[in-house]
Amino acid sequence: MSESYKHKKVITIGTVSEITGLTERQIRYYEERKLIFPERSQRGTRKYSFHDIEQLMEIIEKIEEGVQTFEIRQEMLKKEKKRDERKIRDDMIRGQLNARFGIQQSP
């Protein structure tokens, strides 16, 4: 399955700035704080996805509510951990069901 359009890193920082209302400096700051993760082109240009823009909009809302960037990062790490744990659990269950019913995994 191909990558969802929401996750393709094709949007420049200038466009992200226009869409979000953030300055380029603010966007780079959130990257430094490990709240967003743009890719870099061969020439070093930052490239963002629609998902990154959604993430920035959530960050803006939380900042306006008085939440600190450190707290936002901690919340993100907790969500990532839960997501990883859920994936491991689902993979284990899938493996057990496959073993029980003799289902072969395709490569």
Automatic annotation (TrEMBL):
Give the matching InterPro entries.
DNA-bd_dom_put_sf (IPR009061), MerR-type_HTH_dom (IPR000551), MerR_fam (IPR047057)
Q: Is DNA-binding found in the keyword set?
A: yes
The record's annotation in Gene3D superfamilies points to: 1.10.1660.10
What are the record keywords, sorted? Coiled coil, DNA-binding, Repressor, Transcription, Transcription regulation
SUPFAM superfamilies in UniProt:
Putative DNA-binding domain (SSF46955)
Q: State the coiled-coil residue ranges.
A: 53-80
Question: Where does the HTH merR-type domain start and stop, copy by copy?
Answer: 10-78
How is this protein named in the record? MerR family transcriptional regulator
Q: Which organism is it from?
A: Ectobacillus antri
Tell me the classification of the organism that encodes this protein: Bacteria, Bacillati, Bacillota, Bacilli, Bacillales
